[in-house]
């Protein structure tokens, strides 16, 4: 997939899924699959989900743009309702994330490995703040910042449109993905269907291998 | 999970619980007054037989059978009982005190955290019930801890207290599903799971849990499981007079109960019938396992001893002549400490 270059814009502009910048970005349909039962981390979760469908969202439409400063992903998928605040204990909220390798060779299937982090940009419908997360293996995810990544979701006509965005480069010691125009990286997406009780490792994801993301170079004329 | 160095435990003598809910309120005042905690009762007292709190919790699964995790259900807020709001303004300050009675605002509730109080079971003149206070069992094999994919639940090495780390908790509620005692609540304002903390900030200062210290009935004993001078070891291990609730749930609780004796039955002529207990044995076995019958027999024989003028260490322990002896050394007066909310 290409992350299309768009002329420099306010960060806020990207967060509107209807914004003009998204008209220029090519969308890619990603097939999603449920995370394997055997990889769920605890015996309780495996027992509770044995025989149940994991990953109820089968596909998502994904687009990406950058303006040389900010990289933004737009995810769109069909969802029965757009409930944000779970009112009861057995109700869960929808969510989505984009995951990027922090270093070459980091495995996506296990959400990284010790010393080989992955970096997730995580949005949840009940939280205005998106989370900037690193993980070095299943169950090890930790939030490193709640300001850096911004996300916004709009639910309309049975579909979620969610934009998740971050500066390409971030000054930090944390093992996060540092990006640059013209470069290529891997990416993956995950979608949680709260109505279906999905949370944590119970989710739909874009598969055990990285998808390719080619960031457009910044055109010479604008440099 | 590492086995803790020591384990704190509690024994509750059900023969002395009068269902006054002082423990419940002591806990509520101390720990669950913030937003999102309105419906929480980390300590609850219910009438048995009864549906309990949350409603029908014994049928919600969780825990382990033969060491294998059993799927569980998430109790709803209604199952726990919502925190009702009352029309206090209207009745007390609205000038309608002679026409309007105190009632719950909004929809009339059909369940609450102590809804079936004093109903019990059995027919007159052989009706029966007893009270069952419950807190988190701070289990040796905690299903909540094992269910959490984020390792957000810890069992403290120094005393075995089970705590949820709210910084790691992301509100996934697998713990709530997995706890077979349904003693975990979800805080919808903070989006984290919360439960009884065994009053660890008090324990760390040598002060007994609020529920134990405030109990007017001297129901609750506290201490380290392995302290041979303390009441827990004596009641649980030496005398084997206290049992965990639902041992078949497989979590190895650290709250133990001295089971309730009851008056004898009346027969159809109204005469006392000592041959059958008022509380059916099978009911107590369903709660505490088959060992409960041994405990009841032991209690009866120790009571007979004291009636005959002999000494019984077990009866002396249960009577709790010296209040402070109930707390296994955690008998410091909390008023001697300057508490700071962090």
Structure report:
The complex is a heterodimer of chains A (223) and B (342). Chain A has helices spanning 11-15, 20-24, 43-49; strands at residues 2-5, 28-31, 33-34, 59-66, 70-78, 95-101, 118-124, 127-135, 142-145, 150-156, 159-167, 184-192, 204-205, 211-215. By secondary structure, chain A is mainly beta. Chain A has a single domain (2-181, 192-222), classed as Immunoglobulin-like. In chain A, strands 1, 2, 3, 4, 5, 6, 7, 8, 9, 10, 11, 12, 13 and 14 form a 14-stranded mixed sheet that branches. The radius of gyration of chain A is 17 Å and the shape is globular. Chain A starts with a strand and ends in an 8-residue tail after the last strand. Chain B has 342 residues and is α+β, with helices and mostly antiparallel strands. Chain B has a single domain (8-84, 111-336), classed as Alpha-Beta Plaits (2-Layer Sandwich). Helices cover 23% and strands 16% of the residues of chain B. Chain B has 11 helices and 14 strands. Chain B has helices at residues 22-31, 77-80, 88-93, 143-147, 174-178, 200-203, 210-213, 231-238, 281-288, 291-307, 313-319; strands at 8-13, 44-48, 64-65, 68-69, 130-134, 153-155, 162-164, 184-187, 192-195, 220-224, 243-244, 255-258, 264-266, 272-277. In chain B, the strands form 6 sheets. Chain B has a 4-stranded mixed sheet with strand order 10-1-12-11. The interface between A and B is medium-sized, with 23 and 29 residues.
> How confident overall, as mean pLDDT of chain B?
96
In total, how many beta strands of chain A?
A: 14
Number of strands of chain B: 14
State the CATH topology of chain B: Alpha-Beta Plaits
Main sheet specs of chain A: 14 strands, mixed
Whole-angstrom Rg of chain A: 17 Å
If you compute it from the alpha carbons, what radius of gyration of chain B comes out, rounded to the nearest whole angstrom? 21 Å
- So, CATH architecture of chain B? 2-Layer Sandwich
- Which strand order does the major sheet of chain B show? 10-1-12-11
CATH class of chain B: Alpha Beta
């Amino acid at each position: 997939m290409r992350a299309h270059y768009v002329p420099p814009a306010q960060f806020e502009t990207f967060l509107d899924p209807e914004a003009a910048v998204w008209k220029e970005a090519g969308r890619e349909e990603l097939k999603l699959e449920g995370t394997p039962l055997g990889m769920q981390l605890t015996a309780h979760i495996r027992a509770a989900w044995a025989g149940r469908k994991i990953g109820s969202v089968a596909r998502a439409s994904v687009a990406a743009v950058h303006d040389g400063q900010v990289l933004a992903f737009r995810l769109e998928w069909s969802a029965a309702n757009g409930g944000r605040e779970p009112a009861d204990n057995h109700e869960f909220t929808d969510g989505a994330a984009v995951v990027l390798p922090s270093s070459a060779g980091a495995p996506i299937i296990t959400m990284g490995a010790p010393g080989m982090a992955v970096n997730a940009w995580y949005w949840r419908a009940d939280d205005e703040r998106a989370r900037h997360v690193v993980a070095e293996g299943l169950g090890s995810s930790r939030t490193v910042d709640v300001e850096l990544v911004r996300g916004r979701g709009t639910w309309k006509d049975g579909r979620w449109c969610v934009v998740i965005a971050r500066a390409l480069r971030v000054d930090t010691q944390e093992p996060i993905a540092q990006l640059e125009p013209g470069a290529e990286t891997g990416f993956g997406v995950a979608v949680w269907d709260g109505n279906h009780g999905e949370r944590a490792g119970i989710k739909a994801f874009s598969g055990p291998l990285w998808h390719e993301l080619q960031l457009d170079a910044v055109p010479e004329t604008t440099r | 999970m590492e086995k803790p160095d020591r384990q704190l435990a509690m024994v509750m003598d059900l023969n002395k619980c009068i269902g006054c809910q002082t423990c419940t309120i002591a806990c509520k005042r101390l720990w669950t007054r913030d937003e999102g905690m309105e419906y929480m009762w980390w300590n609850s007292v219910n009438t048995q037989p009864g549906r309990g709190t949350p409603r029908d919790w014994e049928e919600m699964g969780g825990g382990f059978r033969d060491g294998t995790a059993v799927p569980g259900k998430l109790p709803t807020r209604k199952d726990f009982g919502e925190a009702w709001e009352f029309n206090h303004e209207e009745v007390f300050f609205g000038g309608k005190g002679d026409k309007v009675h105190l009632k719950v605002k909004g929809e009339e509730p059909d369940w609450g955290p102590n809804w079936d109080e004093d109903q019990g079971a059995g027919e007159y003149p052989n009706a029966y019930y007893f009270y069952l206070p419950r807190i988190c069992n701070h289990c040796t094999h905690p299903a909540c801890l094992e269910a959490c994919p984020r390792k957000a639940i810890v069992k403290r090495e120094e005393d075995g207290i089970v705590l949820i780390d709210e910084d790691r908790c992301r509100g996934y509620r697998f713990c709530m599903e997995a706890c077979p005692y349904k003693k975990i609540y979800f805080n919808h304002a903070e989006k984290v799971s919360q439960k009884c903390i065994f009053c660890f900030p008090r324990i760390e200062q040598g002060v007994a849990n609020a529920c134990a210290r405030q109990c007017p009935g001297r129901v609750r004993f506290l201490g380290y499981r392995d302290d041979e001078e303390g009441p827990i070891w004596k009641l649980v291990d030496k005398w084997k007079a206290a049992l965990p609730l639902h041992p078949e749930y497989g979590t190895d609780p650290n709250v133990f109960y001295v089971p309730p004796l009851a008056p004898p039955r009346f027969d159809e002529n109204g005469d006392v019938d000592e041959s059958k207990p008022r509380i059916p044995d099978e009911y107590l076995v369903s709660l505490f396992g088959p060992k409960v019958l041994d405990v009841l027999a032991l209690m009866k024989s120790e009571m007979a001893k004291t009636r005959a003028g002999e000494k019984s260490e077990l009866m002396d322990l249960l009577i709790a002549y010296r209040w402070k002896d109930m707390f296994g050394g955690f008998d410091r007066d909390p008023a001697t400490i300057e508490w700071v909310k962090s």
